[in-house]
Design a protein that fits this description.
Layout: H1 7-16, E1 21-27, E2 36-41, E3 44-50, H2 61-77, E4 96-98, E5 101-107, E6 111-112, H3 117-131, H4 144-169, H5 173-194, H6 197-205, E7 211-213, E8 222-225, E9 230-232, E10 239-241, H7 243-254, H8 259-272, H9 277-288, H10 291-296, H11 303-330
Antiparallel strand pairs: 1-2, 2-3, 3-5, 4-5, 6-8, 7-10, 8-9
Length: about 350
């Protein structure tokens, strides 16, 4: 199998950023074998990142890269401290186009993943600081949260139809009987809260005052450097959007359903960006949505989907406790059904077999 980025290409790209490369090594992510290239140069270590477009946006890769670079430059000019510095190319731009693909270069951040409650408090501070930066440009024509909610409602509807069909065929029967009703209850509670007049008004107002959002705050994308400073990496998805959604997804993707970590994150966030009652309810409702379940049942026969269903089975009680914690924080009434057969192991979920 050919190497995606030959050394000669990497060396040529490095020169376009004024760097003389000594060595390079591809580094993997959860989803890509060659997600980023670690370059050792005469002036230090850098991360060379091939830009990956979002398929959810109906624009070209180059337009998405250009937009992301403009937003990053704005953050740099605003003094945002939790992003690795981007290196300008010889042209003055923050990216270059090589063989049809955009690339950008940042400082390489060496460090450790989040481990303590204090780390999560610092993450909350970093995300709140990002959301608080004035965008310096016009608002959005549509409320980003409403657009995302419509998409998630479509996924919820697809999940219900899929589980009904699979249950009739006897496939994944045990999983569906154990968790299907509870997942539907979670989404219905969330939809009900998100449909209240105060919540709708809040998320509609966000269109006029959108926030910069990272859109991919996950454990691998958060690094604590040797001096204890927290960095968010992988800024391919930066754009103006909903701070409520960005916050709810960050909590879900990083805190491991641990109430102590969740509380620390929220404490740090509200130190920089206090949240009113309606904002808290909105974030808690968004957090409760069973996004991973919907994703798994989009293609239930895939190995990754089956693994996700086993993971949800194993962590269900922690997930419920985390939702209850968020409800209490937001002042919402909690009432999540706990399946009577919750302790029964799901076992294997092989392709084409009943459960």
């Amino acid at each position: 199998m050919p190497v995606p980025y030959p050394r000669s290409q990497i060396r040529g790209i490095a020169r376009q950023f004024g760097l003389n490369m000594i060595s390079s090594a591809p580094m993997p992510s959860l989803y890509r074998k060659h997600a980023v290239i670690r370059m050792q140069t005469e002036t230090g270590t850098y991360a060379l990142k091939p830009f990956i477009k979002s398929e959810l946006l109906r624009t070209s890769t180059v337009k998405q890269m250009n937009s992301a670079a403009d937003d990053v430059r704005h953050l740099m000019n605003s003094g945002y401290l939790h992003m690795p510095p981007w290196l300008p190319a010889n042209s003055g731009k923050l990216w270059i186009l090589d063989r049809g693909r955009p690339f950008y270069v940042t400082a390489w951040i060496e460090g450790r993943p989040m481990q303590t409650a204090q780390d999560f408090e610092q993450l909350g501070q970093a995300l709140a600081a990002l959301h608080a930066i004035p965008p310096g440009k016009a608002g959005l024509k549509r409320a980003p949260a409403l657009e995302q909610i419509r998409l998630w409602k479509t996924k919820d509807s697809f999940f219900r139809k899929t589980t009904a069909r699979l249950h009739q065929k006897g496939r994944y029967r045990r999983w569906i009987e154990t968790y299907g009703k509870a997942c539907t209850s979670l989404s219905e509670r969330a939809w009900s809260e998100l449909a209240t007049p105060e919540t709708i008004r809040l998320i509609k107002d966000e269109a006029a005052r959108p926030s910069f959002v990272h859109n991919d705050v996950t454990m691998p994308n958060v690094i604590l450097s040797g001096d204890g400073r927290l960095f968010l990496i992988d800024w391919d998805r930066i754009r103006l959007g909903s701070a409520f959604i960005d916050t709810a997804k960050a909590i879900k993707n990083t805190t491991q359903f641990n109430p102590e970590f969740i509380q620390s994150f929220l404490t740090g966030y509200e130190q920089h960006r206090p949240l009113g009652k309606a904002a808290r309810k909105t974030i808690a409702a968004l957090y409760a949505l069973p996004l991973e379940v919907w994703s798994a049942f989009r293609f239930p026969s895939r190995a990754g989907s089956r693994q996700m269903l086993r993971t949800i089975d194993r962590t269900w009680q922690q997930r419920v406790k985390a939702v209850e914690f968020m409800d209490a924080w937001a002042g919402l009434a909690s009432g999540i059904p706990c399946p009577s057969n919750i302790h029964r192991k799901m076992g294997r979920l092989p392709r084409g077999e009943s459960t």
